[in-house]
Amino acid sequence: MPPPSMQAPRISVFGLGYVGSVTAACLAERGCRVIGCDVSEAKVEKINSGKAPIGEPGLDDLLGAQRLSGAVEATTDARDAVSRSEISIICVGTPSLPSGALDLSYVETVAGEIAEAVQEKNAPHVVIFRSTMLPGSTRGLYETAFSDVHSLVTAFFYPEFLRQGSALEDFRNPSLSAFGHLTDEESSEAWMEFLLEENTERMSVEEAELLKYACNAFHATKVAFANEIGRLAKGLDIDSKKVMTALCEDHRLNISPYYLRPGTPFGGSCLPKDVNALTQSARRQGVAVPVLDSLIASNRKHLESLLERVEARRNRTILIVGLAFKAGTDDLRGSAMLDLSAELLLRGYTVRIFDPDVSPEKLIGANRHVAESRLPSFDTLLVESVGEALSSDAGSTTIVVTKPCLDGSEFAQLLESRDGDHVIDVNYWSELEGLVPSYEGICW
Ligand SMILES: NC(=O)c1ccc[n+]([C@@H]2O[C@H](COP(=O)([O-])OP(=O)(O)OC[C@H]3O[C@@H](n4cnc5c(N)ncnc54)[C@H](O)[C@@H]3O)[C@@H](O)[C@H]2O)c1
Asked: CB of 194 within 8 A of CB of 29?
């Protein structure tokens, strides 16, 4: 790539719908020279007459002002748009096919047109995909559509998070900004100073592509969840607004990163019990709550995927490090690792368990009952240390870790002289990742 221009870049924006027309207007406002491109002559004409091609508060005024100053114009000619810009931003639609699958045909067409135009221009060009696309799409398009111009084209994925209705404000001050690289080529980012926010997260294109879907799926989950609580509340003559407002007041556990880390299935004495009670109560009321209903099934699937991962290693001895449902407690009620151990025993594996928080002599009441009902030979499965478990086993062991119960380097040392052991980390014990050669994360 050539050195970054000190002047604002000339940018072509492909697709002048809800995202593209806002992008064009806001980049012009930032000082870029923008040429919009759309197959719709009507939209191109609108922009050229200083009018918004879609309904969005404030856009008419902004486009009018930017058109007047000559900072923005539009065309239906893709070749012309590319020849008069250094950067192209793709904002065409990615609708659903009748099957629900993603229709990438508009993006493919535009990518092909840009590739041809770059070849003709024979000058370096940056292509930024903003259309929402599934992981792998940007790389796939780069490999296919741009195969003849790899030496000229640098491609990125830069998801758009604006909301219709407040799109200008969201563009100017985004809630999240993430920039996906195909390679480690951060140097080419110098071109992006007019685009990227100061707090932009850098990641791979696949991470950025998934991030966009994760955000939208999360938003959809929140809406569906709130509506289910609302329906339940109405049936019980309870004020759902008050309940949900109070829920949102808790910024430690509710509206926070807590409970949002991939890892252990949920467990303990409360979550499974209370989700079950709530869904039972909804059934009695005749209120459909498919989101709430799916939680126990989803949690079960997560545990099954861990079981499959353990079995895939074909080691017959399994060491569970951390049995209680979470660190810092000896509570075994609803413990996913207790379920995993029981299932492995049923399947004929040799199971050993190390958890310094769980000692047989202190285990009484419901806790002991839960342990013994799931693992009849419970006391004999427990070991005093990871070293003890490994020294009694000459063969290879798969070690499932859910909490850092010992020093990471000590753990790595214990495994050093052994062959065929495998560590599956369920709760991201970050230290282990670099220390243990045969390390695998449950979700990473
Ligand atoms: N609408 C939103 O709020 C929003 C927010 C974030 C991300 N997105 C994503 O951004 C993308 C665009 O969404 P949108 O709502 O702006 O779509 P849209 O349907 O409003 O606009 C798409 C535009 O692309 C044009 N187009 C189609 N083929 C073209 C071609 N070959 N050359 C030039 N233009 C072409 C269409 O004529 C249309 O004007 C989608 O992937 C969407 O999922 C949308």
From this structure: no
CA 225 centroid distance within chain: 19
Name the active-site residue from 248, 270, 405, 443. 270
Lowest-pLDDT choice from 1-15, 301-315, 362-376, 401-415: 1-15
Nearest Cα residue to 17 out of 36, 32, 33: 36
Cβ of 40 closer than 6 Å to ligand 1, yes or no, is yes
| Model pLDDT, residue 6 | 53
The finding on whether 213 has its CB within 6 A of some atom of ligand 1 is no
By C-alpha distance, which of 216, 206, 243 is closest to 228?
A: 243
Alpha helices in 10-161 (DSSP H): 18-29, 41-48, 59-68, 78-83, 105-121, 137-144
CA dist 373 and 223 (Å) reads 39
Residue 3 pLDDT greater than 80, yes or no: no
Q: Rounded distance, CA 137 to CA 135, Å?
A: 6
Any ligand 1 atom below 6 A from CB of 390: no
Q: Is the CB of 16 under 6 A from ligand 1?
A: yes
Across 22-60, b (16+ Cβ under 10 Å) vs e yields bbbbbbbbeebbbbbbbeeeebbebbeebebbbebeebe
pTM of the model: 0.93
Per-residue DSSP letter, 164: T
Q: How confident is the model at residue 330 (pLDDT cuts 50, 70, 90)?
A: confident
**Taking 70 as the threshold, does the pLDDT of residue 1 lie above it?**
no
- Asked if 400 and 415 count as a contact pair (C-beta separation under 8 A), the reply is no
Burial of 65 (0-12, 13-18, 19+ CB in 10 A): middle
User: CATH homologous superfamily of domain 10-204?
Assistant: NAD(P)-binding Rossmann-like Domain (3.40.50.720)
- 433 by Cβ neighbours in 10 Å (0-12 / 13-18 / 19+) ranks as middle
Phi-psi region of 66 (alpha: psi -120 to 50; beta: other; left: phi over 0): alpha
What six digits make up the tokens of 303? 């545990």
Structure-token pair, residue 412: 């790595």
Out of 44-48, 339-343, 402-406, pick the least confident: 402-406
The secondary structure of residue 382, as a DSSP letter, is B
- Report which residue type is found at 287: V
- Kindly report the CATH class assigned to 304-441: alpha beta
Within the chain, all domains assigned CATH 3.40.50.720 are found at 10-204, 304-441
Look at residues 439, 417, 411, 438 and name the one whose alpha carbon lies nearest to residue 426.
439
The reply to whether 270 belongs to the active site is yes
Torsion sign over Cα 313, 315, 318, 321: negative
pLDDT on residue 42: 98
Q: Which of 38, 59, 88, 90 to mutate to test the pocket of ligand 1 (most atoms within 8 A of CB)?
A: 38
